[in-house]
Amino acid sequence: MPASDDGPLSAFHPAALIATWFGSGLLPKIPGTWGSLAALPFAAALTWLGGPWLLTAAAVAIFLIGIWASDLYARRLGREDPGSVVVDEVAGQWLTLVPVALEFEYYLLGFVLFRLFDIVKPWPVNLADRKLKGGFGIMADDILAAGYAVVALITIIWVLE
């Protein structure tokens, strides 16, 4: 993906702020984990304010906005899927947490499961990661990973309760 003539976006450009989730994707070594962690307080606030319906709506909205933001950010950097783009982790983390109550243990478990499936990338997550391009491609594999995380999370909670 060739870089744009305009070069990288300003850190304060709306697409950069969203793509890096307010700079959390710029933290060292494990940007996806930082992005997922940064998503948790927002998920808790959304759930507290409007329950799972608001968190679901917000996840869909950030997925759609994330397609635009990650595509523009990546194109301006001249890279297909820069590690600093973590809005995909935000959308996936929020979707993972939709079916659970606002409890620390569930959020911690949801965080761990989402990161596991996002890193391991079982089929078809790995296929989406390799084949889909642009902003949609950046976002899609994390949504699929969230699907695995949701099933695992619900199953573990069901077994434990």
What this model shows, in words?
The chain contains 6 helices and no strands. The mean pLDDT is 95. The protein has one domain (14-160). The chain has 161 residues and is mainly alpha-helical. It is globular, with a radius of gyration of 15 Å. It has helices at residues 14-19, 31-77, 87-97, 104-120, 125-131, 134-160.
Show the helix and strand layout.
Blueprint: H1 14-19, H2 31-77, H3 87-97, H4 104-120, H5 125-131, H6 134-160
Helix pairs in contact: 2-3, 2-6, 3-4, 3-6, 4-6, 5-6
Number of helices: 6
Mean pLDDT level: 95
What is the domain total for the residues?
1
Assign an overall shape: globular
What is the end-to-end distance? 49 Å
Q: Please state roughly what percent of the residues sit in beta strands, choosing from under 5%, 5-15%, 15-25%, 25-35%, 35-45% or over 45%.
A: under 5%
Percent of residues in helices comes to over 70%
Count of extended strands: 0
Keywords:
161 residues, mainly alpha, 6 helices, 0% strand, globular
In summary, what is this structure?
This protein is mostly helical. Helix content is 71%, strand content 0%.
